[in-house]
Design goal:
Elements: E1 2-3, H1 4-11, E2 14-16, E3 25-26, E4 28-30, E5 38-44, H2 48-55, E6 75-80, E7 93-95, H3 99-113, E8 118-122, H4 127-137, E9 143-145, H5 153-162, E10 169-173, H6 176-179, H7 186-189, E11 193-196, H8 210-217, E12 230-234, H9 240-248, E13 253-258, E14 267-268, E15 271-275, E16 278-284, E17 290-295, H10 300-315, H11 322-326, E18 336-341, E19 346-352, H12 358-371, E20 379-383, H13 393-398, H14 400-405, E21 411-415, H15 420-425, E22 430-434, H16 437-447, E23 453-457, H17 465-478, H18 488-491
Parallel strand pairs: 4-5, 5-6, 6-7, 8-10, 8-11, 9-10, 11-12, 12-13, 13-14, 19-23, 20-21, 20-23, 21-22
Antiparallel strand pairs: 1-3, 2-7, 15-16, 16-17, 18-19
Amino acid sequence: MLTIKKIFNIIGGELKDAHNKEANEINDFETIYKFVNSKKTAYLSPNKETWSRELGRNKNALDGNDLVNKENGEIGLIITENYISDLKFEIPQIIVEDSVQAFKQLAIYIRNQYKNPVIAITGSMGKSSTRMLITSLLGDYNVLENRGNNNVRAAIYNNMLKLIKNPDFAVIETSMNAINYLENTSTFLKPDIAIITGIGEAHFSTFKSVKDIAKIKTRIFDGLSSTTGVAIINKDTLYADYLIDKAHENASNVLTYSINKDAKADLTVDNIKYNKGSIELSITNQDNKSEIYRLNTISEGMVSNTLASILTLKSLNLPIKQELLNDFKPFSKILALKEIHAKTHKLTLLDDTHNASLPAMINAIRAFNSQTKFYSGHKIIAIGKISDLGRKSNETHLRLVEELENSNADYILCKDNELRQVVNKVRNKNITWYPNKELLINDLKYLCNEDSLTLLKSSVTGTDFPKIAITLPNSVRDHNIEFDFDALFEKL
């Protein structure tokens, strides 16, 4: 427990409006004002200039003080650089010179008092899903995890503040922003278990090579205890051996997992069975008995993430409850199968427009391939670009050619300039490039026939392709199409 007086002693500054309130308990912290609704919650008010300079906060974001409702009395404490003088209620305020420094000081202090396990996850793909899987498998416990998928530096420090609630476990995903060369928050987060889910082609606008990305990702190991720390690594990923070597420099226990049953890893899969809308995987346990796990997903990548999660619980000496895994559902736009009922027929969309790296794009295409046998209509792939590839954009996109040629798609629809070269290279496929989303949606309305399956895949930024995923279902529902293919040419 922290009191207002104790917080003041930790961060210093000037304490105001705290007469007879210095012993008041604070059991939560917020840097986002809309979540402040208790007299036991402290609001760390982000100063516009300081937070932009030191944490990269959006320069257009409002100053934290400007967001405070002057009529609100449900605030326990305000920590700010500038005193707020016109509040209706007398609320204790600590006036500090640097609100970011105070933010970090408090976060580090609270983390150092926390004694339960902290699990940190990073990777070019799969970190959010792995975090959610682990949290799901820990469903019998009180677990702290990221709010949404906010995983930048400020979010890591904010989660460290949340440890004041003393959860049974903390499962925190960290982005490149949180462990890059500007600052490595892992050294303050001090995870007991650190996971790297994979290394892939991304962030080339910032980094020169995949090896550079791998180097950054290994910084998550810097916070591990050399005597008790556990590193968990995807043995199937790029630079896996490098990741393992770096982990050994920091951790006493390095574990690996692989979807290849012949791999020399600590956890592998004996068999993967693809069903309609789900996957079953069998794993041999320590007693040499086969265990069957069912996943409500069709993604091979999610199988890999499940192995990381199972290995995490085994490291914590906790049982794997299959019913908790059965109930797990990923984000709504992670390879989500959505059945759409049009006026004359039904069709299925496989929406994966939440994000994209090259491995994620390949994973989506292969997941699509695993499902095509369950559908009698057209099999369609509609894709947009992979963002944030910088000077390696052309080279990376061209690596999609072989995957598309070997896919089970009857039709392939591409948008964004980066995919024009791909369309020109793909052979023996009905593939078309579209200059705008309206033309692509119009063709999809005709191609999405009875019992068809359509994959929608792209990055979420730098392309308007995700808007197609939003617009297409309503366009198909509202369009009165009769599939008389003799007259289809005239209709088009």
